[in-house]
Amino acid sequence: MNNLHHYRLLQGFNTFDVSKEFMIPPRFHFIWMGKNFPFAYRLSVETCRRHHPEARIQIHFADPPDNEHWRALEKCAEMVELDEEDLLSALPASLSGIADIYRGIAAGYPAGRSNILRYLLLLKHGGVYLDCDTLTLRPFDSLLADTLGFIGEETVFRSDDDRVAGKAGLELLPYGALFGMSYGLSLTNVKWLGNLAPINALDKILRRGWSARKLNNAILGAMPGHPFFAAALDRIPQIDPAVRFALGPILMNETWEETQGVSMRRLPEEVFYFIPPSQTFRFFHGPAPHLPENALAVHWCNSNHKEFVKTLTPEKVLAANTPLPLFYRLAREALDQ
């Protein structure tokens, strides 16, 4: 199935109701699986609530944790036990094979299951999906009112898709060398040189050589039944879920190419991902960088900081010395509310 008209018929494209105040319903979805729930993830939900006081915020969970940070969210979000079978059974017959793929994903790979679940939730309910390693900076109201769906770009290593699939060729060498120089220069600047502007300018020059703009799926928004997510789900049977990112960013980019981004607004990196995923140490070290004026949220990429994030507590955030790194500054603002 690769016909755009078929996607529209499949999910009832004409059910979009643009007469309401919001084209995308003000409903925010988080997904959580597992017993460990650090303080940093709590901030994701709390900052979303802070900027959307009237919105419906739901945490879809399986095997819930039981600690103070999880319990603190009961006052600002609906806790909804995941009913995977209900979401899977709502798919049309042409997409029924996805259920077998979902059940075949190992329980120890929650990221793979979460990728599929977020598409199912948006397809059925609409709204905004947010990863738990995001912080909301400003209301999403303008996006909800003016678009049928949205997805954001980020700056990534241009050969990364081939690298994770084991297909990278000789071009990996020059791109990799530029990437290494950029990474080392940026890390040195942030950790030990005070984030000097001239070095950041040099890093931007190097970045042009190793980077590409690709889509990420940590933050997504859509009306219910959006054909982009029907198309994404339709591609899943062709994908090896064991390949890292295959069900996430890689799937989003392939779906965009196939559908020409049908009724989806492609947002520049400044809106959600102004710090590249390879440089998310900038959130936790050095003086806070300037936030772009059009930034609505940031993605601090937990996969790069798993062990460190486990040690973060409100007390450590409040005791941090100035100049504050960006994560600490944003966390303090949330704690002050």
Throw out a few tags for this protein.
single chain, 337 residues, alpha/beta, Spore Coat Polysaccharide Biosynthesis Protein SpsA, Chain A, 2 domains, 7-stranded mixed beta sheet, 44% helix, globular, disordered N terminus
Q: Helix and strand layout, with pairings?
A:
Elements: H1 4-11, E1 27-33, H2 39-51, E2 56-62, H3 68-72, E3 78-81, H4 84-89, H5 97-104, H6 110-125, E4 127-130, E5 134-136, H7 141-146, E6 149-157, H8 160-164, H9 172-192, H10 197-210, E7 211-222, H11 227-235, H12 249-259, E8 265-267, H13 269-272, E9 297-299, H14 306-310, H15 314-319, H16 326-335
Helix pairs in contact: 1-11, 6-11, 9-10, 11-12
Question: Can you characterise this structure?
Answer:
- The chain contains 16 helices and nine strands.
- The protein has 337 residues and is α/β, with parallel strands linked by helices.
- It has two domains: 284 residues, Spore Coat Polysaccharide Biosynthesis Protein SpsA, Chain A (Alpha-Beta Complex), CATH 3.90.550; 36 residues.
- The chain has a seven-stranded mixed sheet with strand order 3-2-1-4-7-6-8, with helices on both faces.
- Strand 2, helix 3 and strand 3 form a beta-alpha-beta unit.
- It is globular, with a radius of gyration of 20 Å.
H/E order of the elements? HEHEHEHHHEEHEHHHEHHEHEHHH
CATH-defined architecture of the largest domain: Alpha-Beta Complex
Average per-residue pLDDT, rounded, comes to: 90
CATH topology-level fold name of the largest domain? Spore Coat Polysaccharide Biosynthesis Protein SpsA, Chain A
State Rg: 20 Å
**Total domain modules:** 2
Can you summarize the main beta sheet?
7 strands, mixed
How far apart lie the N and C ends? 49 Å
